[in-house]
Amino acid sequence: MSKLCENIAYTHLAERFGTPLYVYSEQALTNAYQNYVNAFAGCQPLICYAVKANSNLSIIQHFAQLGCGFDTVSGGEIARVLAAGGTADKIIFSGVGKSIQEIAFALNAGIKCFNVESLPELDRINQVAEMMGQIAPISLRINPDVDAKTHPYISTGLKANKFGIAMADAERAYQYAAALPNLQIIGIDCHIGSQLLDLSPLVEACERMLALADKLAVQGIALQHIDLGGGVGIAYQNEQAPDLTAYAAAVAQMLAGRNLRLVLEPGRSLVGNAGTLLTRVEFVKQGEEKNFVIVDAAMNDLLRPALYQAYHHIENAEENGQPEMVADIVGPICETGDFFAQNREIAAAAGDLLLVRSAGAYGASMASNYNTRCRAAEVLVSGDTVREIRQRETFDDLIRHELACLG
Ligand SMILES: *Cc1c(COP(=O)(O)O)cnc(C)c1O
């Protein structure tokens, strides 16, 4: 008996669409979004899904239909949101390196807010807005200098990070922005890291942001919203995901009496546990010191283990009656870093279907064509029905742009 995604057997999906295959549960996406809406009901937040976690058009469309806004980090992501039916007035544009073209594109679309990360960026947005005869709505991303206690590659709120404007420079930066004629200051934001399992850094960041907002109000800079970024972690193994209700209660208490709309930018926590990567076992290889389960998915499909030594739970789609062994579960790519798990207990034989869990976030969106591998197909399951939401790439897709240049 195969394990199910909603009402559909994973083995059936693998046979129908091939492997590697990303499978998402629509109900899990809805539930994750609804959890935020319910927990923060008292604050009436604008929840802006961080598109980079999974930028598939159908997933964006699903969130748009639920009323969600979007946090984007490139012109391409803004274009994706618009193509999927999201509305510009719920789009936030973050990122440290916005180009002139991206700023013009975003202004033209009429996005809700630019989250600005430096003084030169303020100048650039002001200039582009002036050229276009527009006023750009902006927020400053402040680096609250709190330790998110997460993996160093996904910690963003410390002094040593490239992100945001230092707390010590924040008031001056707001004064500077206030003097630029084609900007309208509407908010303040932060994003201190990702996969946070402890709420205290998030709460502390909120406190520091609000203290700054109070000082700004005294100086005549009244903000409309506070954006606390994303970063709430999920359970990959046996971690306890933070309690959103407790987070919401702390935030609601801090916001009480202040006239500030709340914005949140969750990515991973909306999609991570809605997705599973299906992969077929090619070979089981008994090495001299180790066993290897060689599968048909690889680091080009799911980079997280190679990039951050991330843990993903891996299980057989069916009980196969095989004894468990300890093995490295690896892909076919010519890199030692191409593994999904090391020294993992697994019962697997050639031909078995394995489920790599919690692969909905930073999986497909970080995929590449390394080793000239076609990117996987993606499907969205809802009850008894399944919809292909990205076709498997073909070799022709991969070489198209080079063929055009072949002499
Ligand atoms: C990546 C990112 C997010 C989402 O982070 P998660 O950990 O996936 O929730 C939100 N805001 C900004 C600015 C980001 O860069």
Automatic annotation (TrEMBL):
Catalytic activity annotation: meso-2,6-diaminopimelate + H(+) = L-lysine + CO2
Pathways per UniProt: Amino-acid biosynthesis; L-lysine biosynthesis via DAP pathway; L-lysine from DL-2,6-diaminopimelate: step 1/1
UniProt keywords, alphabetically: Amino-acid biosynthesis, Decarboxylase, Lyase, Lysine biosynthesis, Pyridoxal phosphate
Pfam families: Orn_Arg_deC_N, Orn_DAP_Arg_deC
PTM annotation (N6-(pyridoxal phosphate)lysine): residues: 52
Annotated Orn/DAP/Arg decarboxylase 2 C-terminal domain residues: 22-360
Binding, substrate: 268, 304, 308, 335, 362
Co-factor(s): pyridoxal 5'-phosphate
Gene3D superfamilies hit by this protein: Alanine racemase (3.20.20.10), Lyase, Ornithine Decarboxylase, Chain A, domain 1 (2.40.37.10)
GO molecular function, one term: diaminopimelate decarboxylase activity
Top-level class of the enzyme under EC nomenclature: lyase
Sequence ranges assigned to domain Orn/DAP/Arg decarboxylase 2 N-terminal in this UniProt record: 30-271
Lineage: superkingdom: Bacteria
A GO biological-process term: lysine biosynthetic process via diaminopimelate
Binding site for pyridoxal 5'-phosphate: 231, 265-268, 362
Active site: 334 (proton donor)
InterPro entries: Ala_racemase/Decarboxylase_C, DAP_deCOOHase_LysA, De-COase2_C, De-COase2_N, Orn/DAP/Arg_de-COase, PLP-binding_barrel
Enzyme Commission number(s) of this protein: 4.1.1.20
UniProt family annotation: Belongs to the Orn/Lys/Arg decarboxylase class-II family. LysA subfamily.
Self-association and partners: Homodimer.
HAMAP family for the chain: LysA
Functional description taken from the UniProt entry: Specifically catalyzes the decarboxylation of meso-diaminopimelate (meso-DAP) to L-lysine.
Protein name: Diaminopimelate decarboxylase
The organism's taxonomic lineage, starting at the top: Bacteria, Pseudomonadati, Pseudomonadota, Betaproteobacteria, Neisseriales
Gene that specifies this protein: lysA
